[in-house]
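Budget justification note: compute hours in this period were largely spent on complex prediction jobs such as the one shown. Inputs:
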Amino acid sequence: MTIDLKTVKHISKLARISLEEKKAEKLADDMNSIFEFIEKLNELNTENVQPLTSIAETTLRFREDKITSDNIREKILKNSPERNDDFFVVPKVVE
Amino acid sequence: MTEITSLGLFELIKNIKEKKISSNEVAKSFVDRSEKSKKLNVYVTENFENCLKLSKDFDNKPNFDLKLPGIPIAVKDLFCTNEVRTTAGSNILNNFVPSYESTVTQNIWNEGGILLGKLNCDEFAMGSSNETSFFGNVQNPIAKDLVPGGSSGGSSSALAANLTPITIGTDTGGSIRQPASFTGTVGLKPTYGSCSRYGIVAFASSLDQAGPMSKDVKDSSILLEVISSFDKKDSTSIDFKRNNYSSELTRNIKGIKIGIPKEYRVDGMPEEIEKLWKKGIEYAKDCGAEIIDISLPHTSYALPTYYIVAPAEASSNLARYDGVKYGLRSSGQNLVDMYEKTRSEGFGEEVKRRIMIGTYVLSSGYYDAYYLKAQKVRQLIKQDFDQAYNKVDAILTPSTPSSAFKIGEKSNDPVSMYLNDIFTVPVNLAGLPGISIPAGTDKNNYPLGLQIIGKPFDEQTVLNIAYSMEEKINYKNNITDWWM
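Corresponding output:
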């Protein structure tokens, strides 16, 4: 199986990463060599194997739904690329 | 007296407790040496002034009951540190200042450790040579233009160059053990669930573990005792009885059964690695261990499995970097354009490659063929270890298939870079503890490491075997301070 340029562009859309044409070609090459190496898994019959989803065999713990941190709103907003008062600003979404 | 910076953690603690040296003297020595070592490019963010101040505060009001009394420690820049910039080696987090502290670093400060600085690493811990960092290559103090390994390359270099007495890294596929092996130092990846992941910039959440990197095994046992804790803030943190690793450390490993997996004899493995492994087996025998041949039949499937599971989890974890609430933002014509440009400019090539692989294997129509398949093979790999541990207490392998390579040597060939982690990746997939200890050198005099893999939660046995073998191996780094 090979990953063509069209697929690479589609994946980059899904991943929200803009790609120049030249970079997309290089990426297609890299991905193909990586997948060639990954295809080795097809040698194994895994029909009756249970997938391993988590190595820590624990059930998720419950906790009370209450605030445990101090008011750090200002510290969090300080990291924002663009803010207006107590809000994050993004490019206009609704016309 | 020997130079302060050449002392390991245990010696420093002893000297501070006996009031032979002050915390401030120690901090000053490491800061001075770090100032003279900028060529190694280990620091992304220095915390020198604050460290000196805090060490004075410690001396004014010392508490010698603490496990790390007034010890300056530099940490990998993947651990969020409250009010101190945390970049994960990425442009996208270049200006990020956390408002919280990772549990692992908090545990260190609670025991008297003082932050010396944040250490360079591969971007989002994705790399085996520290070359993917936005902040540039790190030099290995062993020789000029040699990579320090990765992703905890700033940590391994700083440690080997005596710029920090001990450090912490994170290990998703070998990122503590491989750089330790490349720099002649000790690196321990604990069992998954031992050290909290809270506040560590996430790469692949089912594999990530923090762990100590040190000059010798005893130092790692001291730091493990500090950082290993049950933490409610990490949903996969495990509440088990933790040993007092340093006080229970013993060289008596008589009768311990050590397995030698035949599948680790990979094609094209250099002869010197094979020789090192044989030597390691002899050392283990000398220490009183019983050597048993074992089989881990799915070993060769570990890397392909890893390169599905890790990128899949990474693509999901890194979806949060969108330029909205923190980090870099590039301008775009609309919201989606802004996302796409931010992520294109904010991430480096290797990170983009892995996000793309991860997105692909999780995308509609491919999930079963790749992701589900990999999870099933991961189960088989874990079962290999489960079965082996019916017969043995631990497993001995080389840490890496080669010694450190030159900067630029493998950066254009992702697959050959990935092969570096061939011996370390299975351990992460199975969630086991593993340590790399320096065990010899290659023909260029570059360090080589041996890996000891243990049963889940049995860090103590891993440490004991390493401690015992370390004495027999008696490895010494020969570092000439060429960068000064």
